[in-house]
Amino acid sequence: MKTRLVVLISGNGSNLQAILDACKSGELDAVVVSVISNKANAYGLFRAKNAGVDAIHFAKPENETRQEYDSRLADYASACLPDFIILAGWMRILTSAFLNHFPNRVINIHPALPNTFPGTHAIERAYEAYQRGEIIQTGVMIHLVPNEGVDDGPLLAKQEIDFIKDETFEDFEIRVHQVEHKLLVNTLELVFANPEKITGEK
Predict the structure, then answer these.
(1) What share of the chain is helix, strand, coil (3-state, %, to 5)?
(2) Which residues pair with 8 in a beta bridge?
(3) pTM above the 0.90 mark?
C-alpha cells in the first residue's frame, strides 16, 4: 500500500512539485492525498490541482488562537488518513495542538544546516553571511518536528553546499533548491521504506 502524504505549504511549492513528480514516476511509493496552504495565493495550490490532488486554502480567522487553528488543521489533516505530514515551505510554527496528533510523523525541510539560520529567509541570510566572510558553506536538512522548536528537530538527513566565488544570489538560490528537491525525495524514500525506525511502529 502506498504511503499517504499530506503536504503543508505557504508559497511556490517547488518542493511539493518534487514530491508530486517522484510519486508520479514511482520513485516514491507514495501518494499525496491533500495539499494544504495557509496562503490563498500560494502557487503550490495550483501545482496540486494541476496534478489532480485535493488542495485547500486553510484560512485562520483573526479572532482564532494559534491553538484553535492548529486543532482544526489537525482534524482536517487527520481525516485524510496520512502516514506522514510533510512541511514543504510551511511558514507557520505548529503548536502541540497539531503536532500531538502526529507523533514522529511530521517532517520538515529547511535550507540550512543544523543549528544555523533557523526560521525565515535562511537562504538569503546564509548568502549574506558568506559575503561577510563568516561562513564558507551552508546546506539543506530534513528533520522531524516533535515540538514548537524552530528548525531544530531530530535530524533525518543533511547535505552541505559550498559557496562559489562571485556567484550571484539568484544562481546560488537555484543550487540550493536543486539540493532541496533531491535530498527531500531521497530522504522520504528511505523513511517510507523503514517507517518503523521513525514512528516506532512494528
Answers:
(1) 40, 20, 40
(2) 36, 87
(3) yes
Name the phi and psi angles at 145, rounded to 5: -120, 90
Residues 126 and 117: beta-carbon distance below 8 Å: yes
- Of the candidates 57, 101, 110, 121, the residue annotated as catalytic is 110
- Phi/psi class of residue 154: alpha, beta or left (left: φ > 0; alpha: ψ in -120 to 50)? beta
- Respond yes or no: is residue 143 known to be catalytic: no
- Structural domains of the chain, with CATH: 3-114+140-159+177-196 (3.40.50.170)
pLDDT in tens, the chain (202 residues): 899 999 999 999 999 999 999 999 999 999 999 999 999 999 999 999 999 999 999 999 999 999 999 999 999 999 999 999 999 999 999 999 999 999 999 999 999 999 999 999 999 999 999 999 999 999 999 999 999 989 999 999 999 999 999 999 999 999 999 999 999 999 999 999 988 777 654 3
